[in-house]
Amino acid sequence: MKWLKRGGLALAVILVLAFTVLATWEPFFARETTPPPARTYTAEIIRDEYGVPHIYGKTDADVAFGVAIAHAEDDFSTLQDVVAMSKGRYGAIAGEEGAQFDYIYHLLDARGTAERHYPDLPEDTRALFEAYASGLNQYAAEHADELKLGNLFPVNGEDVAAGFALRQPFFFGLSGVIEPLVTGEPLRREFGPDIPGYPRELSPPRPQAEAPSQEAPEETAHRPRTAFPLGEEAGLLGSNAFAVAPEKSGGPTFLISNSHQPLRGGVAWYEFSVESEEGWHFTGANFPGSPFPFLGHNEHLGWTNTVNRPDMVDVYELELNEDASAYRLDGEWRELETEWVTLPVRMGPVVLPIRRAVYRSVHGPVIMREAEDGTQEAFAIRYGGIDRLDQLDAYYRLNKATSLEEWQEQLARMAIPSTNFIYADERGNIAYVYNAAIPDRPEDVDANWRGVLPGDRSDLIWEGSVGYDEIPKLVNPDSGWIYNSNNEPFTAAGAGSDLSPEDFSPVLGIERKQTNRSRRAYKLLSEAEVLDRETLRAIKYDRGYERSDYIAVLWDALETMEAEGELAEARDLLLNWDFVADNEGPADALALLMIRDWMSAEYQNKPEWPDAKEKLAQHVAHLKEHFGRIDPPAGELLRLRQGDVDLPLDGGSDTLKASTTWEVDEDGRLSLVHGDSFIQWAEWPADGGRVTSRSIQPFGSAITRPDSPHYTDQMELYAAKKLKPVHFWREDVLGHAKSRKTVTNAR
């Protein structure tokens, strides 16, 4: 029996050793980062009554150092997630879901893109990123108790740049291509006017899906939130934007930024202002991991963004040899580039090392999968902005532009891969640019660019993007107003001012879709004789629906639905709804739940509509279980929740006052996670006076600091549809200062 005891002891020792290794290996295995070059930075951080930081410095680099410190003080948790993503280590924090990002990090060669192109950026841009990295490093060194992951710091400018290379493609829908290729589902890449839900007239409805299982529907299943959306949630990123010229407003030039982003995580907005002695003076918001704002305004001009959906991704099916080690191109076999990577995947207290192969061809990243007959299939993807990093410099230059001409010069570089830009300035100019680094596809070849292309033809492998003169844009339309609500660029400024789709090549793949928000905005803006503050505010916070597109599909299904008892009562309640999500009608709560399903199906280009009867039964059951009735006030159902603050909300999925997606809490309430996020309203007076602005965030500046007074201090204003002042000018900042300090790395 002694040998059994000795064997058991040895096994226990082995298990302890194995556990120790799995619990500790990842930080030591991680890639080493060379710290930024030694340089002294000094910045002043002044916080106003809402905790919003205003960061000052002698140089732009000093300010960028202060931006990192201020943001880390408010949300170091999310910043660490973003840094981990930029190093391919997010799975060590977020487990399997985080490892998905790490795999895509390797698949898209985000690190390689940064290594190849970061050294070529202008010196002052690199100085900005090195200073920002230095600020993150300093905060990490001084707050070791907050670190989530060993050896995550130091970081350098190249690390920060790699995060940009990873995240940008998801804003134009790359995940909607990668996911079907991995799972074997059909690609959902529909752009033409013959697709249901496209503008101007309703096409026949798509067939309804078979009844789903009795499991909780996706939008009513509580799930963990990651730092950056992937899959369906990424495809729901949206926004509204408005610009109004003085002749239409009757006074100032207006610019309204109304972004719809996740309220937390790696693409949640962070508000701040910057000012340096080198002429950088800007107020707006960024995403965690950026040294500069992505939208907002300076003294002279401002802009905001909305997500657009051009055809930015091409898919090529490769012809493989017998052992899948090579692919055919122009009649010759080429070796398939293969790289093995280790993905850290946290499982409770241990981190498992998972080995995966990453493949690439001359086309770009390659997705390998097993066909039904057991053979290997390979699909290469190539997307707009691939292997480019100059967006880092373009955004920086946009921050410092002083005129429409300078601003357009930066966009004309086609360095920023996607998103619409809506612009206004002190001279009363307004503009709209359908910005997208659309692939420069040859038009004289026989190819279906929206299908799966043959991978054996090099003439289908394009280089670079189309020119700035080829994409849609409007400057100072006769209507005096411009808007975008994630709609096609051909409805932007009203009848007589809009662009014509016939003037643009179909090879560009410009989307031809509308949203309910777009239909409402277009109608309300067109009807208004004057777009003054009161009128424009009513449009921005409009909660109405048009019975068209997917809304019409849903209500048509309700009208033909056979039902009995409580289900018939619910159906009839919806059929008598006033199509306004204002929390006043008895059908508002039920409509909120139903519309979300159909909006998702339309926005994701899903091949089938949900089953109306099945969905209605699920949502009726939910309301009965948690409220005891099918017609509770919608404000009791939809909530804005953070800490101890719990407030009612109105609006819905795809209303101009947007409450897009939610988590279902244990009490059955819907806790908003995506919708109206950072809102900024800027005005340049017609008499040449100084710019002023107001803004709001859903929660507060210190979004992950429960002990901060700014954890929830903007929530009541947000829920009441109110804005707070932005203190842009230094004397105004000093007049509202609640804290003031100098930060430096000098020792």
Q: Please, could you describe this protein's structure?
A:
There is one protein chain. With 747 residues, this protein is an alpha+beta fold. Among the domains are: 1-30; 218-235 and 545-695, Penicillin amidase (Acylase) alpha subunit, N-terminal domain, CATH 1.10.1400. It contains 20 helices and 27 strands. The strands form 4 sheets. A 10-stranded mixed sheet has the order 19-17-16-8-7-6-5-2-1-27, with helices on one face. Strands 3, 4, 20, 21, 22, 23, 24, 25 and 26 form a 9-stranded mixed sheet that branches. A 6-stranded mixed sheet has the order 12-13-14-15-9-18. The chain starts with a helix and ends with a strand.
Question: Secondary structure elements and their pairing?
Answer:
Elements: H1 2-29, E1 42-47, E2 53-57, H2 60-86, H3 91-107, H4 110-117, H5 123-142, H6 157-167, H7 175-183, H8 232-235, E3 238-244, H9 246-249, E4 253-262, E5 270-276, E6 281-286, E7 295-297, E8 301-306, E9 313-318, E10 326-329, E11 332-335, E12 337-347, E13 350-360, E14 365-370, E15 376-383, H10 391-399, H11 404-411, E16 420-425, E17 430-433, E18 452-454, E19 473-475, E20 481-484, H12 516-527, H13 533-540, H14 549-559, H15 565-575, H16 588-603, H17 612-627, H18 634-637, E21 638-642, E22 645-648, E23 659-664, E24 670-684, E25 692-696, H19 715-719, E26 724-725, H20 730-735, E27 739-744
Parallel strand pairs: 2-5, 9-18, 21-24
Antiparallel strand pairs: 1-2, 1-27, 3-4, 3-20, 4-24, 5-6, 6-7, 7-8, 8-16, 9-15, 10-11, 12-13, 13-14, 14-15, 16-17, 17-19, 21-22, 23-24, 24-25, 25-26
Helix pairs in contact: 2-3, 2-5, 2-6, 4-6, 5-6, 10-11, 14-16, 15-17, 16-17
